[in-house]
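Do me a favour: review this protein, sequence plus structure tokens, and tell me how the chain folds. Record follows.
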Amino acid sequence: MMMKRLLLFIFISSVVLAKPYRGGELRTFESFRYGRFEVRMKSAIGSGVVSSFFTYRDYWEEGLTGSEHWNEIDLEWLGNYNEKTQTNLIIQNGWDLPDLVNLDFNPHEDFHTYAIEWTPDYVAFFADEQVIRWVDNFYADSLYHYQKIMMNMWQPIYEEWVGPFNPDILPVYAFYDWVKYCAYVPGTGNTGTDNNFIQLWEDQFDYWDTGRWGKATHTFDGNNVDFIHENVVFHNGYMILCLTTPDDTGFNEGSINMNLSTGWNIIGLPLEVENSNYEVLFPNAVAGTLYGFNGFYTSEMELEPGTGYWLNFQEADTASLTGSPLTSFMVSLTEGWNLISGNSAITNVGNISDPGNIIVPGTCYGFNETYINADQLIPGNGYWIYASADGNIIILSNLTAKPISTFTDRTEIANKISFNNSELYFGVSIPEEERNSYKLPPKPPLGAFDARFSGDTKLVETFGNIEVMNNTQELFISYSININEDDDKSWLLISSENEEYELEDSGQLILNGSVDNFTLSRVSLIPTSFSISQNFPNPFNPITSINYIVPENSAIAISIYNLSGQKIIDLVDSYIQTGVYTVTWDGMNHKGLPVPSGVYIYTFEANSFKSMKKMILIK
């Protein structure tokens, strides 16, 4: 593909700007014959984008014309590949030898060191000191003309090479930390292969060395950018190549204000900053409360872009962050729940690039005193996302694209009950293949509010055990019954204190904040027969609930036995009036001592009615 670039190259001098985008290019004034050329850099991500480090023969400076004089040794990073780099050799008459080489890292996510060794006998390419390609055929023999060092970022028209380009990802940047040149001195050096090289200079890009480097103002056919001086920026010890629109050139350092609530917040890092320690970024946060997630909560000190974190504040706060904008980056997801964050601009969740279709629709949640479904990623906020498998997604700004997946939200027609504005749904069936769309993220850290059905879901059809993690003195409950097709049945909410509430139409309840468990079930208004439900949850640890129906005033006994037939405890042994009831067992025996894990039997006796079921206690 480099052939297309070299054969169509037109100008080195300034030209009239006419291309739709603007790029950057930096090159040495000096030419070199053989040596080791090193760079530490982070390439630019984005389909259709190329960032590079290479040497080329400036044959125009020699008074020659015609691409048959072209020589070049390339390292190129294609923004549509996440673990590859392209290497290439171009010799006289336009013969080239490209090879797309696998890497064991993503070059767009962090800085890595690369090198080209060019000798009369071979050309070798290195990534983080490891050889990734070695060429010692006639191509290497043919490279003997002096060459300059060049770095550029551009947007080729060749989709089959670099992938389709969407300008909504702009601006994008490639960051260069330093460049070194080591002369080839076989047998007398101190670095490189067989110590055959010696370093002559290093540029750490603390400033623009105008005696060494020149910025380009030119273009060539097959390239959608004009190179301009403004898109080669020296900033904070980096040389930054920019790919931009004509109206927004150069490198724009960002500033974002984050509004933080009292208590727990899910946050992210929306900028590339010099110091990512949370105590520096958020000096008013409660010490020791930054938590990431890797299947379980982990204490952290540093924030990484693309990752979400919990962080606690004693009082509401505003944090002002300054750094380099994050426009596009990849986020690696594992199967299950993941804490992520967006970039420096608002991103629609439906426009996240999900090539593996692994994001489960409906499972993006933010947090504002309780979990809430999110349809946008706001800079500085963190979010939960559920993945159906391991894989990668790419977060882009302002990208108009098809939604991740079609999704019918069945909560829109369901009955609704909310606990302190945390909404749960019931009364509709869910196809098995859609169940993951109604999962809830892991419970927040202690001190936050949460309400959910057992099994970490927000929707049930006919029965559910509700777990409440409260942080207030009162519990505000509101409900709305939209579906109740059977007039002989009603929805019954029973608290852990055995208080019953029949839910009809809509209404509100205010309960003591210590109530932390409810059962919600659809029951007959007039019980017609004795019955006892399977305990829920089952298996359990350490508390489980059992519902039972008493159709007539009766003496009721509910007891628990071990498999040896020994009675453990009587849960109920009294005269009960007609009604629907719930009883709980906390895994204790009649002496108040905990019983071991295992299988237990519970029995229900009323008049001539007897029933027996199994339950499993796991500790």
About this structure: DSSP finds four helices and 49 strands in the chain. Helices lie at 2-7, 138-141, 159-162, 278-281.
